[in-house]
Write a structure and sequence with these properties.
Largest sheet: none
Shape: globular
CATH class of the largest domain: Mainly Alpha
Structural class: mainly alpha
Number of domains: 2
């Protein structure tokens, strides 16, 4: 089934098309959820919630942009709403960040390696990093989504980038090309 067929049949509430959508997009959407939630168990819950929202809103999808981007936006928004509900997004300084020596090595071509680095960022920094660097949102959009100031978004991005550099050194990441 092509992407267009999946979309059309999902809009007609075809169960086989819903199953195909889940089969095709679950790995990528799970990766998005893990990046935001930092925990596979919570990410699985958010993946389920994301599919509920996708199915409830499939009729509103207009083929103006990428379908995959639309799905990713729903997954990211679902995770952010859950984090906000649990009131874990804080605006305070992060003081428990530690980069210690570690002999573990992985490559950036390995998705699990990239996720490992992102997961180690403190939650507010991880969220801003994901939204800005990976999802491509502006600081204005991030501020609105996370209910923080634009300057806070900029500051957290700067700090998260420094932490990512430190983590790359910590894990002695090997760049392969």
């Amino acid at each position: 089934m092509t992407e267009t067929e999946i979309i059309q049949k999902c809009k007609a509430y075809d169960k086989a098309a819903f199953k195909e959508l889940v089969r095709v997009y679950s790995p990528a959407l799970m990766s998005v959820c893990v990046r935001y939630m930092g925990d596979r168990h919570f990410a699985e819950d958010m993946l389920q919630e994301s599919y509920i929202r996708i199915f409830n809103n499939i009729l509103q999808y207009e083929a103006k942009g990428s379908f995959k981007s639309w799905l990713f936006r729903i997954a990211a928004t679902t995770c952010l709403k859950e984090l906000r509900k649990k009131q874990v997004m804080v605006d305070s300084e992060i003081t428990d960040y530690d980069v210690s020596d570690n002999n573990e090595t992985f490559t950036l071509d390995d998705e699990s390696g990239i996720i490992k680095i992102i997961e180690e960022l403190p939650l507010p920094y991880r969220l801003v990093f994901n939204l800005y660097v990976i999802e491509g949102y502006s600081h204005q959009e991030i501020a609105a989504m996370m209910d923080i100031g634009e300057s806070t978004s900029r500051t957290q991005l700067t700090r998260s980038k420094k932490m990512v550099r430190d983590l790359l050194l910590k894990y002695k990441v090997q760049m392969t090309h």
